[in-house]
């Protein structure tokens, strides 16, 4: 049983490692967000099929790690979101979609199983808000 769980989690970790190997930070951000979507789908399938909270937890942690990697990769470009919004806007849209999907999964879960998904939702929400702030912020006026 443990071997099955380890083998099920191995492809997801390998794909995140492959994402980290991408040298272009903008492509890395896109790949990381795609990986987050796949990990969330895996979490939903694990919960609905067997309520396997170990697999659900591992998949949700990968969602969080993928979103963090995407945000860090966009920061690594040293571009400002308000002046070069293309990849930042795509990331904002995908994180907003992830939030919607996380909320859908959360509604399907029992109240006792929601602690982990609430932590992941908060992390994704924080990244989404940071992306929005970066795109909408612009230049700040000096205080007199």
Number of domains: 1
Q: Radius of gyration, rounded?
A: 17 Å
- What is the element string, with H for helices and E for strands? HHHHH
Largest sheet: none
Give unreliable regions as ranges.
1-12, 140-144
Q: Count the helices. How many?
A: 5
Keywords, separated by commas or semicolons:
mainly alpha, 80% helix, 144 residues, globular, disordered N terminus
Question: Can you describe what's shown?
Answer:
Mean pLDDT is 86; it is low at 1-12 and 140-144. With 144 residues, the chain is mainly alpha-helical. The radius of gyration is 17 Å and the shape is globular. It has one domain (2-136). The protein has five helices and no strands. Helix 1 runs antiparallel to helix 2, helix 2 (25-50) packs antiparallel against helix 3 and helix 3 (53-76) packs antiparallel against helix 4 (86-108). Helix content is 80%, strand content 0%.
Secondary structure layout plus pairing:
Elements: H1 2-20, H2 25-50, H3 53-76, H4 86-108, H5 115-137
Helix pairs in contact: 1-2, 1-3, 2-3, 2-4, 3-4, 3-5, 4-5
Could you provide a short overview of the structure?
80% of the residues lie in helices and 0% in strands.
């Amino acid at each position: 049983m443990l071997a099955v769980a380890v083998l099920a989690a191995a492809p997801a970790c390998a794909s995140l490692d492959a994402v980290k190997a991408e040298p272009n930070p903008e492509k890395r951000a896109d790949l990381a967000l795609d990986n987050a979507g796949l990990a969330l789908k895996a979490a939903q399938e694990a919960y609905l099929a067997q309520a396997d909270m170990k697999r659900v937890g591992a998949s949700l942690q990968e969602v969080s790690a993928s979103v963090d990697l995407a945000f860090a990769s966009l920061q690594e470009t040293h571009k400002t979101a308000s002046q070069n919004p293309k990849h930042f806007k795509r990331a904002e849209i995908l994180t907003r979609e992830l939030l919607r999907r996380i909320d859908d999964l959360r509604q399907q879960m029992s109240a006792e199983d929601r602690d982990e998904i609430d932590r992941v939702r908060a992390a994704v929400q924080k990244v989404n808000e940071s992306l929005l702030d970066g795109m909408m912020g612009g230049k700040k006026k000096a205080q007199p």
